[in-house]
Amino acid sequence: MNNRIETSKKNLESNFNPNEVKENVETFNNSSSNSDFVDRQKTNIENRANKFEGNKLNSNEIKDKYIFDTEDTSRGKIFDDFSSLKNIDFKVIGQVFDTFILVERNGLLEIYDQHIIHERILYEKLKQEYYNHSMSKQNLLVPIRFELDPREKQLALENIEIFSSFGFDIDDFDKNEILLRSIPTMNLRDSYENIIREILDNISKNKDVDIRENIIVSMSCKGAIKANHKLTLEEMYSMVAKLHEVGEYTCPHGRPIIVKMSLLDLEKLFKRK
């Protein structure tokens, strides 16, 4: 179970030992010199000690810190915007199997599937961006060239404008090949060839579903974190809080996101009731 709090390295000065600082402060206090230089150095060291203490993350405050450190790019951002997160009363217990998040809320033990949480959040975000015409894309310096079977290529070319509205600019190329000239500005956790193929497969299998819906479902699934992905406590709080703000508790395919157990359920498992 992962129940640790990580702080950004940039907040701490490298090779900084608070015990050494205290010793240095005591040395200055006992010094017979009253020079301005000594006073300045003493003040500087005390400030560094205070800064070190101030950068310690209080575990009691973690529930209020739903926003990731946007300057810390070591892990990559899961979400883009936390500005509207609501303060929802719940307690994250931790992560099990690097796949499920355990939460205590409203007197119940709740088990969340982390992939489906993120998938649902991305689905709502992409849908909103699409219908608000606010989706962005980035042009590729070198287009991605890949081969499709004749059926896939025909389907892609028939829907070029729709693909483009989601950030995928596609051009016809030689025989059964296409060129991908631009991509959406979001973190899709797979190759773009696989993503295009999955979108086309979903379109062909779900002909009664709007093509745009198929694309949004595929993009949200490919953009979501997977099982066996370690999360910090801060990330778990952020995901659960954002899910409850969205207020939808199934994935776009209809699978449940949360399994709930009461105290009575647990007591029955242990033959206490």
TrEMBL record:
Assigned GO CC terms: mismatch repair complex
One of the Pfam families matching this protein, by short name: MutL_C
GO biological process: mismatch repair
Highest rank taxon of the organism: Bacteria
GO molecular function, one term: ATP hydrolysis activity
Gene3D superfamilies hit by this protein: MutL, C-terminal domain, dimerisation subdomain, MutL, C-terminal domain, regulatory subdomain
MutL C-terminal dimerisation domain boundaries: 92-231
Record-linked InterPro entries: MutL/Mlh/Pms-like, MutL_C, MutL_C_dimsub, MutL_C_regsub, MutL_C_sf
Annotated protein name in UniProt: DNA mismatch repair protein MutL
Organism the protein comes from: Fusobacterium animalis ATCC 51191
Encoding gene per record: mutL
